[in-house]
Predict the structure.
Amino acid sequence: MPARGGGARRCPDPGHRRPGRPPGRHGPPERDPGLLRRAECPGRGHRPVGRSRGGTAPRPGRGDRRPRLDRLHPPDERPPRDRRRPRLGGSPRHQRDDDERPGRRHRGPRHDDRGGHRGPRPEVRDDERARDPPARARSPPARPGIAVGHPAGPRGHDRDPLGRGRRRCLAAVAPPQGRRRVRDPRPPDREDRPVTAQQAAPTTPAREEAGAPGAAGAPGATGATGTPLLTRLDLRAASGDAARDARLVALASRGAVPDPAVRQGARAILADVERGGSAAVADASRRFGGGLADGRLVLGRDELGKAADDLEPPARAALLAAIANVRRFAERQRPVSTVTEIIRGVEIQRRWVPVARVGAYVPGGVAAYPSSLVMTVVPARVAGATSIVVASPAGPDGSVNPVLLGAAGLLEVDALIVAGGAQAIGALAFGLPDEGIEPVDLIVGPGNAWVTAAKLELAGRTAIDLPAGPSEGMVVAEPPADPLRIAADLITQAEHGTDSPAILVTTSEAFGDAVAHAVDDLLASAPRREILARSLGEHGRIVLVADLDAAVAVVNAYAPEHLSIDVEDPEPVVAGIRNAGSVFVGPWAPESAGDYATGANHVLPTGGLARGCGALDVETFGKFIQVQRISREGLAALRPTITILAAAEGLDAHAQAVEIRFREEAKDPA
């Protein structure tokens, strides 16, 4: 049937189909029409492509269902030059046929080359084809992350409740690239809402500190990920000025004070506890955790005593040994009152008075720390405190560790408040009247950022020991020290938490690399490998110095909480240390010995406060009162000094208080 509009007739070729469409119901799709040529329409004078080469003709009817590869010419052979390009498939009106258009003069066959028609190109083997050009650079692929400001929600939380479409924070699609179409058919790059990547902690030693010389090719072992674990800080070029190196100054510039957001949150919790008392503490425990499963808030002396009786013999023996050692060291610290005669008639007494009511915070929750209870309560008992209340949170299961309860019973603690965080500090400071707990005069003990923030907020109303930041340790070592031993000391420090610095200061680069390898070996079998790897990866350092004098300078600049010294002749190094909380000397002095058993207190200054503060001791739990006794003879000797200095400061009443006592009409008080 002729097509409408006088167009060309559709070719009656039974195998003809549109490109990309199957020739039959079950036939395979046709390949690229530029490569696989269909059979020409009979009667046009064109030679059938490939049929003269032994290919089989298509079957009548529904067409050949094979891929039609037989219609290709053999490799490296050009098709006849008199063959025109096969016509495109499609509707009859798209089939241009100049020979059958009415009213058109027949021009005869036209060769492709003379007519400018693009003829078939020689076939090229696949392995000889030019490769596609490289794709344009795209934005980096998304990484696993945690949304910032977009907390995770349940599945489908961002769907419209009525099933309608909803914009999902994606950027707009790429704009048209000309003539209202996108020339690049690939999907446009689109970005989701911002996320913060949660990267796995590195697991291998030793990378260079940013800006350090030799960072490009630093030696050191690498592990499975190829990422160094301990960061290297090379200060050997600084020599005697190592303490002034900008990189060390930045490393030592830290603090124990929490950020303002935590302090603001702690301030709000303290205000609630001051107004609401026990109910506010219980409510905070329900929100943040740390309370008993049965809802009780305070455990009394009787219950604590029973817990002491129920202790397993090994645990009881270990606690009694630790208590005895701490008590022995603390008793040598007990202050004594003194009397000093300044001049004849002027006598000053310095009288020691212990704090009456002490509150001790003991960390807890996931892990219990009965050793911290011993370190805080024993010095208070030796000082002479009349009342001691302990606060410590319960574990995730709503119970308190039995060894911690037993230690409180052995030390005859008056009460244990089962709460943690800022609410526990508030309970100690303001008291719990309905539970029979009075406000304490002094709060001591380590804790997390919320505990430290709460203590700082109360510093103007209740005495505190000092703010406690993350635990930290430094090791000064060089050959012939054992690298495995030093690695164990670093890992011991990192075990305190993911924010605990662990730093090696050494004069030997090879020794530092050996320690780095030993750290990697020990981590492979460590039970808390993830915590240790994160702590060492973020806060672990190997500091290289020129000599031991430079090592001492680094220590005094950093002022670590714990310092281990493992060198051939340690005493000169020990003599040069001015800023450190507790020093462990020699190969047989691990930090863990001081944490539990030596008797030294393990509540130490952190965050660089060791420059001006010391360990928790007996004097922390008391105060000195100055008592001054002055006779008439003594005041007469001091009279000129008093009146002249008072006049210089413009405090005439101070001078008058002296002069009025010497008037002739005044009675001698003596």
Notes: The first strand starts at residue 145 and ends at 147. The longest helix spans residues 313-331.
